From TrEMBL:
<dbReference type="InterPro" id="IPR050822">
    <property type="entry name" value="Cerebellin_Synaptic_Org"/>
</dbReference>
<dbReference type="GO" id="GO:0005576">
    <property type="term" value="C:extracellular region"/>
</dbReference>
<dbReference type="InterPro" id="IPR001073">
    <property type="entry name" value="C1q_dom"/>
</dbReference>
<keyword id="KW-0732">Signal</keyword>
<keyword id="KW-0964">Secreted</keyword>
<keyword id="KW-0175">Coiled coil</keyword>
<feature type="coiled-coil region">
    <location>
        <begin position="33"/>
        <end position="74"/>
    </location>
</feature>
<dbReference type="InterPro" id="IPR008983">
    <property type="entry name" value="Tumour_necrosis_fac-like_dom"/>
</dbReference>
<protein>
    <recommendedName>
        <fullName>C1q domain-containing protein</fullName>
    </recommendedName>
</protein>
<feature type="domain" description="C1q">
    <location>
        <begin position="142"/>
        <end position="281"/>
    </location>
</feature>
<dbReference type="Pfam" id="PF00386">
    <property type="entry name" value="C1q"/>
</dbReference>
<feature type="signal peptide">
    <location>
        <begin position="1"/>
        <end position="20"/>
    </location>
</feature>
Length: 281
Protein backbone atom coordinates (compact mmCIF):
# COMPACT_ATOMS: atom_id res chain seq x y z
CA UNK A 1 0.00 0.00 0.00
CA UNK A 2 2.80 2.35 0.86
CA UNK A 3 4.51 1.58 -2.42
CA UNK A 4 1.35 2.50 -4.36
CA UNK A 5 1.07 5.79 -2.55
CA UNK A 6 4.75 6.43 -3.27
CA UNK A 7 4.23 5.70 -6.99
CA UNK A 8 1.24 8.04 -7.06
CA UNK A 9 3.28 10.81 -5.46
CA UNK A 10 6.14 10.29 -7.95
CA UNK A 11 3.68 10.30 -10.86
CA UNK A 12 2.00 13.50 -9.69
CA UNK A 13 5.34 15.19 -9.17
CA UNK A 14 6.51 14.16 -12.61
CA UNK A 15 3.22 15.26 -14.21
CA UNK A 16 3.27 18.60 -12.43
CA UNK A 17 6.94 19.15 -13.38
CA UNK A 18 6.27 18.39 -17.05
CA UNK A 19 3.23 20.67 -17.00
CA UNK A 20 5.23 23.47 -15.41
CA UNK A 21 7.94 23.02 -18.03
CA UNK A 22 5.35 23.11 -20.83
CA UNK A 23 3.81 26.24 -19.32
CA UNK A 24 7.25 27.88 -19.18
CA UNK A 25 8.01 26.96 -22.81
CA UNK A 26 4.60 28.21 -23.88
CA UNK A 27 5.28 31.52 -22.12
CA UNK A 28 8.62 31.81 -23.88
CA UNK A 29 7.03 31.03 -27.26
CA UNK A 30 4.40 33.66 -26.66
CA UNK A 31 7.09 36.21 -25.78
CA UNK A 32 9.02 35.36 -28.92
CA UNK A 33 5.84 35.52 -30.98
CA UNK A 34 5.07 38.96 -29.54
CA UNK A 35 8.60 40.07 -30.36
CA UNK A 36 8.27 38.78 -33.94
CA UNK A 37 4.93 40.60 -34.28
CA UNK A 38 6.55 43.83 -33.07
CA UNK A 39 9.40 43.39 -35.58
CA UNK A 40 6.95 42.66 -38.39
CA UNK A 41 4.88 45.70 -37.44
CA UNK A 42 7.97 47.90 -37.45
CA UNK A 43 9.04 46.54 -40.85
CA UNK A 44 5.54 47.08 -42.18
CA UNK A 45 5.66 50.70 -41.07
CA UNK A 46 9.10 51.12 -42.63
CA UNK A 47 7.83 49.59 -45.89
CA UNK A 48 4.95 52.07 -45.93
CA UNK A 49 7.38 54.92 -45.35
CA UNK A 50 9.59 53.62 -48.17
CA UNK A 51 6.57 53.44 -50.46
CA UNK A 52 5.82 57.07 -49.66
CA UNK A 53 9.46 58.00 -50.38
CA UNK A 54 9.37 56.10 -53.69
CA UNK A 55 6.13 57.83 -54.66
CA UNK A 56 7.64 61.21 -53.77
CA UNK A 57 10.71 60.41 -55.88
CA UNK A 58 8.49 59.34 -58.79
CA UNK A 59 6.66 62.66 -58.58
CA UNK A 60 9.99 64.53 -58.47
CA UNK A 61 11.28 62.53 -61.46
CA UNK A 62 8.10 63.37 -63.40
CA UNK A 63 8.57 67.07 -62.56
CA UNK A 64 12.24 66.88 -63.60
CA UNK A 65 11.26 65.26 -66.91
CA UNK A 66 8.76 68.05 -67.53
CA UNK A 67 11.38 70.65 -66.64
CA UNK A 68 13.93 68.95 -68.92
CA UNK A 69 11.40 68.95 -71.75
CA UNK A 70 10.82 72.67 -71.25
CA UNK A 71 14.57 73.30 -71.16
CA UNK A 72 15.02 71.39 -74.42
CA UNK A 73 12.27 73.45 -76.07
CA UNK A 74 13.88 76.65 -74.79
CA UNK A 75 17.26 75.40 -76.01
CA UNK A 76 15.77 74.82 -79.44
CA UNK A 77 14.33 78.34 -79.47
CA UNK A 78 17.68 79.69 -78.25
CA UNK A 79 19.56 77.85 -81.02
CA UNK A 80 17.16 79.18 -83.64
CA UNK A 81 17.56 82.71 -82.30
CA UNK A 82 21.36 82.40 -82.40
CA UNK A 83 21.15 81.07 -85.97
CA UNK A 84 18.99 84.02 -87.04
CA UNK A 85 21.33 86.48 -85.31
CA UNK A 86 24.33 84.94 -87.01
CA UNK A 87 22.68 85.28 -90.42
CA UNK A 88 21.74 88.90 -89.69
CA UNK A 89 25.26 89.73 -88.52
CA UNK A 90 26.82 88.12 -91.59
CA UNK A 91 24.33 89.88 -93.84
CA UNK A 92 25.11 93.22 -92.19
CA UNK A 93 28.82 92.54 -92.60
CA UNK A 94 28.40 91.86 -96.32
CA UNK A 95 26.30 95.02 -96.72
CA UNK A 96 28.90 97.13 -94.87
CA UNK A 97 31.72 95.68 -96.98
CA UNK A 98 29.83 96.44 -100.20
CA UNK A 99 28.77 100.00 -99.20
CA UNK A 100 31.98 101.82 -100.28
CA UNK A 101 31.80 100.25 -103.74
CA UNK A 102 28.16 101.30 -104.17
CA UNK A 103 28.98 104.85 -103.04
CA UNK A 104 31.68 105.07 -105.73
CA UNK A 105 29.21 103.87 -108.35
CA UNK A 106 26.66 106.39 -107.11
CA UNK A 107 29.15 109.26 -107.39
CA UNK A 108 30.07 108.10 -110.89
CA UNK A 109 26.41 107.95 -111.76
CA UNK A 110 25.89 111.55 -110.58
CA UNK A 111 28.82 112.74 -112.71
CA UNK A 112 27.45 110.90 -115.75
CA UNK A 113 24.04 112.45 -115.20
CA UNK A 114 25.53 115.97 -114.93
CA UNK A 115 27.59 115.49 -118.10
CA UNK A 116 25.17 113.35 -120.12
CA UNK A 117 21.63 113.87 -118.85
CA UNK A 118 20.10 111.97 -121.77
CA UNK A 119 22.33 108.92 -121.44
CA UNK A 120 20.33 105.78 -120.61
CA UNK A 121 22.98 103.14 -121.12
CA UNK A 122 25.33 104.29 -118.33
CA UNK A 123 22.64 105.16 -115.86
CA UNK A 124 20.91 101.81 -116.36
CA UNK A 125 23.64 99.89 -114.60
CA UNK A 126 23.59 102.24 -111.63
CA UNK A 127 19.79 102.06 -111.48
CA UNK A 128 20.06 98.30 -111.08
CA UNK A 129 22.49 98.79 -108.22
CA UNK A 130 20.16 101.30 -106.59
CA UNK A 131 17.16 99.00 -106.95
CA UNK A 132 19.05 96.02 -105.62
CA UNK A 133 20.24 98.10 -102.67
CA UNK A 134 16.71 99.28 -101.92
CA UNK A 135 15.35 95.74 -102.25
CA UNK A 136 18.34 94.40 -100.26
CA UNK A 137 19.10 91.83 -102.99
CA UNK A 138 22.72 91.58 -104.20
CA UNK A 139 23.16 91.73 -107.98
CA UNK A 140 26.08 89.30 -107.83
CA UNK A 141 27.98 87.23 -105.29
CA UNK A 142 30.63 89.18 -103.38
CA UNK A 143 34.21 88.36 -104.26
CA UNK A 144 35.14 86.33 -101.17
CA UNK A 145 37.86 84.13 -102.65
CA UNK A 146 38.98 81.03 -100.74
CA UNK A 147 36.98 79.87 -97.70
CA UNK A 148 38.35 76.98 -95.63
CA UNK A 149 38.95 75.95 -92.04
CA UNK A 150 40.43 73.07 -90.06
CA UNK A 151 40.25 72.71 -86.27
CA UNK A 152 41.15 70.06 -83.68
CA UNK A 153 39.93 69.29 -80.18
CA UNK A 154 42.92 69.81 -77.90
CA UNK A 155 41.51 68.19 -74.75
CA UNK A 156 39.06 65.55 -73.52
CA UNK A 157 35.38 66.45 -73.33
CA UNK A 158 34.18 64.95 -70.04
CA UNK A 159 30.72 63.34 -69.98
CA UNK A 160 28.94 65.52 -72.56
CA UNK A 161 25.16 65.38 -72.44
CA UNK A 162 22.72 65.21 -75.37
CA UNK A 163 22.24 68.21 -77.65
CA UNK A 164 25.78 69.44 -76.76
CA UNK A 165 27.66 71.49 -79.37
CA UNK A 166 31.29 70.41 -79.67
CA UNK A 167 33.86 73.21 -79.84
CA UNK A 168 37.01 72.25 -81.77
CA UNK A 169 39.23 74.79 -80.06
CA UNK A 170 42.65 74.32 -81.71
CA UNK A 171 42.35 76.13 -85.06
CA UNK A 172 44.95 75.17 -87.65
CA UNK A 173 43.45 76.87 -90.71
CA UNK A 174 40.75 79.54 -90.84
CA UNK A 175 40.77 81.37 -94.17
CA UNK A 176 38.23 84.21 -94.06
CA UNK A 177 37.77 83.62 -90.29
CA UNK A 178 34.36 82.02 -90.76
CA UNK A 179 34.90 79.36 -88.08
CA UNK A 180 34.41 80.33 -84.41
CA UNK A 181 36.48 78.16 -82.06
CA UNK A 182 34.49 79.36 -79.04
CA UNK A 183 31.08 78.22 -80.34
CA UNK A 184 32.32 75.44 -82.64
CA UNK A 185 30.22 76.80 -85.53
CA UNK A 186 31.13 77.71 -89.11
CA UNK A 187 29.15 80.61 -90.62
CA UNK A 188 28.90 80.78 -94.40
CA UNK A 189 30.19 84.11 -95.75
CA UNK A 190 28.92 83.43 -99.28
CA UNK A 191 26.13 81.48 -100.97
CA UNK A 192 27.67 78.31 -102.36
CA UNK A 193 28.39 74.60 -102.22
CA UNK A 194 30.49 73.52 -99.22
CA UNK A 195 32.13 70.30 -98.10
CA UNK A 196 32.62 69.28 -94.47
CA UNK A 197 34.37 66.38 -92.74
CA UNK A 198 34.41 65.56 -89.04
CA UNK A 199 35.88 62.80 -86.85
CA UNK A 200 35.03 61.85 -83.25
CA UNK A 201 36.87 59.57 -80.84
CA UNK A 202 35.57 57.87 -77.66
CA UNK A 203 37.57 56.23 -74.89
CA UNK A 204 37.58 52.45 -74.34
CA UNK A 205 34.36 50.53 -73.55
CA UNK A 206 32.08 53.48 -74.33
CA UNK A 207 29.92 54.77 -77.16
CA UNK A 208 28.42 57.97 -78.56
CA UNK A 209 26.28 59.24 -81.43
CA UNK A 210 27.02 62.58 -83.11
CA UNK A 211 25.26 64.82 -85.62
CA UNK A 212 26.45 67.48 -88.04
CA UNK A 213 23.92 70.31 -88.23
CA UNK A 214 23.00 72.96 -90.79
CA UNK A 215 21.25 75.59 -88.66
CA UNK A 216 18.61 73.41 -86.93
CA UNK A 217 18.58 70.56 -89.46
CA UNK A 218 20.48 67.27 -89.10
CA UNK A 219 22.62 66.71 -92.20
CA UNK A 220 24.52 63.61 -91.09
CA UNK A 221 25.05 61.19 -88.17
CA UNK A 222 27.92 58.96 -87.06
CA UNK A 223 28.17 56.44 -84.21
CA UNK A 224 31.36 55.61 -82.26
CA UNK A 225 31.10 52.21 -80.54
CA UNK A 226 33.99 51.04 -78.36
CA UNK A 227 31.92 49.00 -75.87
CA UNK A 228 33.73 45.71 -76.61
CA UNK A 229 37.27 46.98 -76.07
CA UNK A 230 39.54 49.68 -77.49
CA UNK A 231 39.44 49.02 -81.26
CA UNK A 232 37.42 51.28 -83.52
CA UNK A 233 37.70 54.37 -81.36
CA UNK A 234 37.30 56.73 -84.35
CA UNK A 235 34.33 57.39 -86.64
CA UNK A 236 34.29 59.88 -89.51
CA UNK A 237 31.48 61.53 -91.44
CA UNK A 238 31.35 63.96 -94.36
CA UNK A 239 28.67 66.01 -96.12
CA UNK A 240 28.28 68.34 -99.10
CA UNK A 241 25.63 71.03 -98.65
CA UNK A 242 24.41 74.27 -100.19
CA UNK A 243 24.62 77.19 -97.75
CA UNK A 244 23.18 80.67 -97.87
CA UNK A 245 24.98 83.65 -96.40
CA UNK A 246 24.80 83.37 -92.61
CA UNK A 247 23.92 79.64 -92.46
CA UNK A 248 25.80 77.81 -89.72
CA UNK A 249 27.27 74.30 -89.63
CA UNK A 250 28.41 72.63 -86.41
CA UNK A 251 28.83 69.22 -84.76
CA UNK A 252 26.91 68.17 -81.66
CA UNK A 253 26.02 65.10 -79.62
CA UNK A 254 22.75 63.41 -80.54
CA UNK A 255 19.65 65.33 -79.47
CA UNK A 256 18.29 62.45 -77.34
CA UNK A 257 21.06 59.83 -76.98
CA UNK A 258 23.55 60.55 -74.19
CA UNK A 259 27.16 59.41 -74.84
CA UNK A 260 28.81 57.15 -72.27
CA UNK A 261 32.28 58.10 -71.14
CA UNK A 262 34.25 60.96 -72.66
CA UNK A 263 35.22 62.31 -76.06
CA UNK A 264 38.93 61.58 -76.14
CA UNK A 265 41.87 63.58 -77.48
CA UNK A 266 45.56 62.84 -76.78
CA UNK A 267 48.89 62.25 -78.52
CA UNK A 268 47.43 59.21 -80.31
CA UNK A 269 44.79 61.30 -82.06
CA UNK A 270 41.57 63.14 -81.46
CA UNK A 271 38.46 64.71 -82.99
CA UNK A 272 38.67 67.27 -85.80
CA UNK A 273 36.31 69.39 -87.93
CA UNK A 274 37.08 70.85 -91.37
CA UNK A 275 35.20 72.54 -94.18
CA UNK A 276 35.78 74.45 -97.41
CA UNK A 277 33.95 76.29 -100.17
CA UNK A 278 33.69 74.10 -103.27
CA UNK A 279 31.98 76.63 -105.53
CA UNK A 280 30.05 79.88 -105.13
CA UNK A 281 26.52 80.12 -106.51
Amino acid sequence: MFIKILWIIVYLATFLGIRADITLQQTRYEERLNLVEKVLMKQSNEIEELKMVVQTQKNEITQLKMTLSKVKRLQGIHDKSISVLRRLIMKSKIILESTPRENILLRKDNKVKSLEPNSEIKTGEVSINRASRLLNVPTSAPDIGTVAFYALMSHDELNPGPHHTIAFDLVKTNIHNSYNHFTGAFTAPIHGVYGFIYTLRMNCRNHGTFEIMKNDEVEGTIHVNVENGCSGQFSTGSIIVILNIGDTVYVRTHSTLTPSGLIQSNIHGGPYFAGWLIASL
